[in-house]
Specification:
With about 110 residues, the chain is mainly alpha-helical. The protein is built from five helices and no strands.
Length: about 110
């Protein structure tokens, strides 16, 4: 992939993620939650596919740029789930905290 296309791909992702992240922070979300909002907004790949195809049909985009739109949609869609899982992972809870009050710990 040419450096210009890589830069275009980075801008494609940042143009969606950054405003969503900033909006999340402005509404009081924690950092990881705001990042998760940004990731989820970024994976809206249907619009990128439509824009890429329409631009190609109108002759505004080259086939290389259209492929960049398609790859951007696919990559962000595939990465969204694992990234959100990682960002919103619950901290590990010790086994003692999982027991009901008054219960006895199991004996080995």
């Amino acid at each position: 992939m040419a450096p210009g296309l890589l830069l275009f791909f980075v801008l494609l992702v940042a143009a969606k993620w950054l405003p969503a992240y900033l909006a999340g922070r402005a509404t009081g979300l924690a950092g990881a939650e705001a990042h998760a909002v940004g990731v989820l907004v970024t994976c809206g790949g249907v619009l990128a596919l439509v824009v890429g195809l329409t631009g190609l049909e109108l002759g505004v985009l080259t086939s290389e740029l259209q492929v960049t739109f398609v790859l951007g949609a696919l990559v962000t869609l595939v990465l969204a789930g694992p990234l959100v899982d990682r960002l919103l992972a619950a901290p590990a809870v010790p086994a003692e905290a999982m027991r009901e009050p008054g219960s006895v710990a199991p004996q080995d």
